[in-house]
């Protein structure tokens, strides 16, 4: 299998097809021989998750349900950042309608990604704060390049990671570690994240990252798919259903929270600090 994959990635027998995407916010390639898809986030400079990027991801995930997709590797075209998390401009002085639409698309995208039956790997080639960490945690396996930051740092911005973000973290690093990290809004270095199990493997560089992601995929493709996905969904169903059964309440909570003057003040200060950097 490994030799076959090397041939495929070296292009000798490979038949890699670009997905006809409606936008270029995501680059999607499917290997017709293995069915493995690479979804690369492509919203420079930092893949901040605005409505349009989330919609492009969601559209791709829906499309993959009807393709012969055997697995998906999620990565980024940015040299330094996997994703900077939610686009702060979606939360800073939005209209209620815009905020509602944005949050609904975030929920849609997360539900599709978290419940994908095929194996999913986050090839984290850069910083991955907040919503970026959520994307990574929603995949089954996380590999990360050295000396970058990952975590749910919302508290540091004066906002709160929603329950489903928190649940994802608890499911990976356990309740005690998650509680400490969420209260402090800790951003872990890649190396610290590997120690506490927030990421599964460290890679030396981007090439090694993609090699390791394909290695994981090869292992998974050797397993009976129905048994594999049944176990995966069994583990994830409580977390999924908790959001699915309370989407409206979750949206209302988000809107009530971000429209508070103090929260808008914090967002403004954080945005200014980012611009001044
Ligand atoms: C009850 C529920 C209520 C609320 C729930 C909300 C949950 C929120 C989840 C989130 O995801 S909030 C977002 C949190 N994200 C961050 O804190 C990351 C902020 N960004 C950074 O730390 C850095 O940008 C970086 C990712 C480490 C990359 O650093 P780098 O030096 O490479 O880039 P630079 O900082 O110069 O940024 C370039 C450019 O991009 C703008 N930017 C960065 N992040 C965001 C963002 N999240 N949203 C919007 N815009 C962002 C930054 O301002 C720069 O813009 P400029 O070029 O115009 O100056």
UniProtKB/TrEMBL annotation:
Cross-referenced Pfam families: ECH_1
CDD domains, per database record: crotonase-like
Predominant location: mitochondrion
Compartments where found: Mitochondrion matrix
InterPro entries for this protein: ClpP/crotonase-like_dom_sf, Enoyl-CoA_hydra/iso
Recorded GO CC terms: mitochondrial matrix
GO biological process: fatty acid beta-oxidation
Subunit composition and interactions: Homotrimer.
Function per UniProt: Key enzyme of fatty acid beta-oxidation. Able to isomerize both 3-cis (3Z) and 3-trans (3E) double bonds into the 2-trans (2E) form in a range of enoyl-CoA species, with a preference for (3Z)-enoyl-CoAs over (3E)-enoyl-CoAs. The catalytic efficiency of this enzyme is not affected by the fatty acyl chain length.
Protein name: Enoyl-CoA delta isomerase 1, mitochondrial
Organism: Nezara viridula (Southern green stink bug)
């Amino acid at each position: 299998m490994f030799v076959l994959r090397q041939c495929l990635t070296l292009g000798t027998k490979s038949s890699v097809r670009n997905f006809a995407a409606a936008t270029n916010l995501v680059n999607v390639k499917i290997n017709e021989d293995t069915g493995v898809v690479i979804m690369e986030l492509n919203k420079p400079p930092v893949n901040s998750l605005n409505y349009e990027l989330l919609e492009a991801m969601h559209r791709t995930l829906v499309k993959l349900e009807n393709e012969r997709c055997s697995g998906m590797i999620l990565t980024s075209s940015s040299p330094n950042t996997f994703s900077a998390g939610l686009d702060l401009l979606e939360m800073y002085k939005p209209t209620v309608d815009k905020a509602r639409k944005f949050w609904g698309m975030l929920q849609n995208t997360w539900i599709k990604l978290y419940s994908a039956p095929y194996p999913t790997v986050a090839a984290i080639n850069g910083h991955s704060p907040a919503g970026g960490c959520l994307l990574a945690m929603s995949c089954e396996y996380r590999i990360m390049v050295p000396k970058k930051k990952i975590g749910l740092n919302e508290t540091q911005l004066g906002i709160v990671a929603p329950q489903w973000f928190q649940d994802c973290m608890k499911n990976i690093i356990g309740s005690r570690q998650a509680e400490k990290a969420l209260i402090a809004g800790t951003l872990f270095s890649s190396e610290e994240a590997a120690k506490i199990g927030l990421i599964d493997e460290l890679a030396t560089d981007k090439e090694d990252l993609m090699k390791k992601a394909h290695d994981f995929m090869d292992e998974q493709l050797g397993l009976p798919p129905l048994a594999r996905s049944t176990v995966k969904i069994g583990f994830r169903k409580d977390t999924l259903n908790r959001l699915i059964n309370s989407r409206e309440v979750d949206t209302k909570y988000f809107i009530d929270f971000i429209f508070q003057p103090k929260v808008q003040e914090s967002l403004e200060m954080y945005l200014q600090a980012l611009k001044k950097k």
